[in-house]
Design brief:
Number of helices: 3
Number of domains: 1
Strand content: under 5%
Shape: elongated
Helix content: 40-55%
Oligomer: single chain
Largest sheet: 2 strands, antiparallel
Number of strands: 2
Distance between the termini: 19 Å
Structural class: mainly alpha
């Protein structure tokens, strides 16, 4: 039970966000990249887009469109559901 469509969706969402970050847009409101200040429970938006994004301080404060973040969130949830079915993990 492999779902390549789900992985393609995650990959596309990550690529769209990376394209937006490369535009280096800054906005006073909206979603933006920021490193966590202190350890806390893992939230979906803290998941690495790529290791390069996680370690690149130049991206701090750059704006990303909310629909792109929603798509990333939904695609990661779909990926998680597929993996749970594959590994038979129940919540």
């Amino acid at each position: 039970m492999i779902a390549p469509g789900v992985q393609v969706r995650v990959d596309l969402a990550r690529r769209v966000i990376m394209l937006q970050l490369n535009l280096e847009l800054r906005a006073p409101t909206g979603a933006y990249v920021s490193p966590p200040k202190k350890p806390r429970a893992l939230d979906w938006h803290l998941i690495q887009i790529t290791p390069e994004v996680t370690t690149d301080n130049r991206l701090s404060g750059l704006a990303v469109l909310r629909p792109s973040l929603r798509e990333l969130n939904e695609s990661l949830k779909a990926q998680n559901a597929v993996l749970r079915k594959i590994f038979n993990i129940s919540r």
